[in-house]
Write a structure and sequence with these properties.
Strand order of the largest sheet: 1-2-3
CATH architecture of the largest domain: 3-Layer(aba) Sandwich
Low-confidence stretches: none
Helix content: 40-55%
CATH topology of the largest domain: Rossmann fold
CATH class of the largest domain: Alpha Beta
Largest sheet: 3 strands, parallel
Distance between the termini: 77 Å
Radius of gyration: 32 Å
Shape: elongated
Structural class: alpha/beta
CATH superfamily of the largest domain: HUPs
Number of strands: 12
Number of helices: 20
Amino acid sequence: MTTTVRFAPSPTGHIHIGNSRTALFNWLYAKKSGGTFILRFDDTDTERSRAEFADAIATDLQWLGINPDRIERQSARVESYDLAAEKLKAAGLLYPCYETPEELDRRRSRARALGRPPVYDRAGLKLTNDERAAFEAEGRRPHWRFVLPNHDGDPFVTRRTEVSWEDLCRGAQSVDLASLSDPVLIREDGTYLYTLPSIVDDIDMGVSHVIRGEDHVANTGVQIAIFEALEAKAPVFGHHNLLTTRDGEGLSKRKGALSIGSLRDAGLEPMSVASLAVLTGTSHAVEPMADLEALAEAFDLASVSRSSAKFDPEEVNGLNARLVHDMPYTAVSGRLTRLGIVGGEAFWLAVRGNCGKVADAQVYWQIVTGPVEGIVGDDDQDLIAAAREALPDGDITEETWSAWTGDLKARTGRKGKALFMPLRKALTGLEHGPDMKVLLPLIGRQSVLQRLQP
């Protein structure tokens, strides 16, 4: 079977790291099996969908390394949904209902008070043509529900009806259709809810595997029933756990929590974000992967935990630093040039171990090129004067620091932190930073002497 997957965001906001988890799961699954990845915009909500959000989502995915094989838009496929709806109506499987939201709320409350599950009673199925006409004369417009196949011919006498599937993440799963209300597929205004367009698209586009969040598990039994009603085979399903913060707070596009765009703008590497998004909540250690190929090797849907995937947003900074510390100069040379850093490979290799982000190299480039406001305490004035006199002649090399401090130790009796820290602060203005052995040649002899002037 050819693998075809899809990521179907609504372009009503910016995607966050939780959304990227689903996108990456689908991308990695497709690429690992030589399959196809479809980016499918669920943009039938014309009031909230925006072209700029769709563009931003595509940009965010590309930054993560996801380049869709196809891009589809549901707004261009409404005729296909209309045909499917007419097919279901003709089969007697889609029926009009006229209750208002308030009336439905009262019915649910009454059912709960009587100790019954708040399942819709299929009152719409009992309406005569005259009763429907009377409702429409009042100005009411119907919403349309799908008749679940949870009966033996009489829809008002339901029976336990298990719909089962083998979930890629959760193993054997089943849903009892008798415990569910007939789902609304079409709103009063004639627009479609997510369910029917998604199923029609999956059928028409040959989607073989649906990999999505665990919040859709309860919907899967209903959707399998609709696939079968449309005479189509349901795809293979996989429902992964959702990312939450350490406090269990869910992520929301509306709140903009940890949006991919904000993480990119903060200077994070795409692979630090991708590694955290994919590996959190799995049996694999959360560690930075060098590229998507390496992440694909570590990726396994069967390793996804059944419990929630809690993560610390700060963890991405640690992953990012580990990636940056190992980055070769060839991977960052263009970015350093755009930052105005022209120190070459020697500079990058000297400072990368102290950079949490590539842009942090700017701090050390300023230290190398100056000006630098050194820090010299009153108790260190004599040491700095001695350092000026003891600086070895000739070009400064990586051996200079050891020879210089060795001479100063003999002259002043200082050693360890009492010797090295005053020199670092005088030359860099910082208490911490790259190894002075490699930083000193980059600063150069003239600048070193200038910074040691009283």
